[in-house]
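Record Alpha/beta fold hydrolase, 315 aa.
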Amino acid sequence: MSDPIDEFSFLAAQAADAGIDGPLPRGERVSIPLSDGRMLSALRYAPSTGSGTATPVVTFLHGAGLNAHTWDTTILAMGLPALAIDLAGHGDSSWREDAAYVARVLAPDVIAGIEAWTDGPQVLVGQSLGGLTAAAVAATRPDLVRELVVVDITPGIDFSGGPSQLRQFFAGPTDWASRDELVDRALAFGLGGERSAAERGVFHNSRVRDDGRVEWKHHFARLANAAASAPESAAHETDAVTAVLGEAGWEDLAAVTSPITLIRGDRGYVSAHDITVYRERVPAASVVEVPSGHNVQEEIPVHLAALVREIAGKA
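=>
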């Protein structure tokens, strides 16, 4: 595969594939240094028409192993100024040396990004790990969140789990000779859809090192590879940590003062039992079921965009 001119070169084709008419928004890569020396990176989109710079009204947080570009088509269809943040250890944001990729640890980075790149409370949308992180942000900084939208995740679900096929995919080699090898591997595992979509996803989620080898941008691939050879005791430790983090997620949701909407994919990770527990513990929240798997923003981005746009209009 040949590299595009820049990371926004795919937008026209994505809009055409999704049947989205109208001018494309202006996209820019932004970054800020964090207090511990790491960098936080994000994508900021503004309408291409009109004067001045339209600041974001919706901020998006992706799931584990993904990056800010997973929201591109949703943002194109939504038609509102938006910010999509690369969580720590993903995309162009720095990896964490402690590998602590959990909601309450990630939330301060998101808060710093919202403060730097927006000028008002946001409709904060998070999918999977991003959804748990969004809840932590809304709980600790209610002044930054007009409305919270959580996509296909509830506390207690192992966000790093997912299908065993996906775990095997990321637990493979940590570097590759070319991006074409990664595309072929994704297609062999039944991931990425059509080859053009797989090429787009691989481009956004990988980088070429100085030695010419290609590696995943996200830290999770390195961690998955290490976990594949970890002793059984490490797996038990992870299970114990997951249980504690699950309760922290419920505490965050209970502390949120803004309206909450849970969007559940009918083929996603949130089971009927999970929904029953969720309704009991977060009774004021709205629940919307959509025809999708876990990655709603990639399977039905236009549908999701309409839901978010409606929420943003009411918020």
